[in-house]
Amino acid sequence: MKSSSTKRQVLIDLLSYSKDLGLGDIVLDDSTREEILSADLAKRIKLEEEVSKTENNQSSAAKSDWIERLSEMNYEALQETVNLCRECALCETRNQVVFSDGNPSARLMIVGEAPGAKEDQAGLPFVGQAGKFLDLLLASVSLSRKDSVYICNVLKCRPPSNRNPLPDEIEMCTHYLTRQIALVAPEVILAVGTFAAQFLTGNKLPLGKLRGSTYSYKGVPLVITYHPAAL
């Protein structure tokens, strides 16, 4: 025996079919065909809205749980999680995840934008020409990535053809970066490039207008400058 909901759906389908055929008006239980169909449409819309709201709430709850788990990870667990990340489309095109280089106990933390082709191959940040230039700049003030500097990027995977990071890619990776900064606990942060500067300052001004001032990221002095590749 068919359920009442199945019978109602059959009736709705028949009424819709009769309307498509151009048949005259039909009245059932003092309701016209159009009234019945309109009521069914309104019911469907309400149901779809409720389902969408439930799915959004579930998604938000899952994301909150994920962020909370990140906030409790130690350095090794965070690195392993990032290395296995498949939260955005960049996981399909990367060769390697680029987590960091340098000393996790360093006083200075340098945050770049995203890995390039050479970084994607090596699995380390700043290994191309820009990286060599950065090493020279550090050496000029008696610093080195091996002993006294920690280096990472906002994005942990290379965007195809070195295009600009997309908003969803930045949003996902900045949760990793936030925990990374908390674990390294640097005394000073140097942000190089637009996307690093804008995220860490929370300001969408162009890089040229952001540099030249000292900011604070959660109490840590933050300095902005151009990416070595742009110098």
Stated plainly, the CATH topology of the largest domain is called Uracil-DNA Glycosylase, subunit E
- What would the principal axes of the Cα set say about the shape? elongated
Span of the ends, CA to CA: 77 Å
Instruction: List the secondary-structure elements in sequence, H or E.
Output: HEEHHEEHHEHEHHEE
Oligomer: single chain
Low-confidence stretches: none
> How many distinct helices?
8
CATH superfamily of the largest domain: Uracil-DNA glycosylase-like domain
Output mean pLDDT: 86
Identify the strand order in the major beta sheet: 3-5-4-6-8-7
DSSP E strands, number: 8
Beta-strand proportion: 5-15%
What is the CATH architecture descriptor of the largest domain? 3-Layer(aba) Sandwich
Largest sheet: 6 strands, mixed
Radius of gyration: 27 Å
| The CATH class of the largest domain | Alpha Beta
Structural class: alpha/beta
Q: How many domain units?
A: 2
Helicity range of the residues? 40-55%
Could you walk me through the main structural features you see in this protein, from its secondary elements to its overall organization?
The protein is an alpha/beta fold. The protein has eight helices and eight strands. Strand 7 (214-217) and strand 8 (220-225) form a beta hairpin.
Protein topology:
Blueprint: H1 4-20, E1 27-28, E2 31-32, H2 33-71, H3 75-83, E3 101-102, E4 108-112, H4 117-122, H5 129-139, E5 149-153, H6 167-184, E6 188-192, H7 194-201, H8 207-210, E7 214-217, E8 220-225
Parallel strand pairs: 4-5, 4-6, 6-8
Antiparallel strand pairs: 1-2, 3-5, 7-8
Helix pairs in contact: 1-2
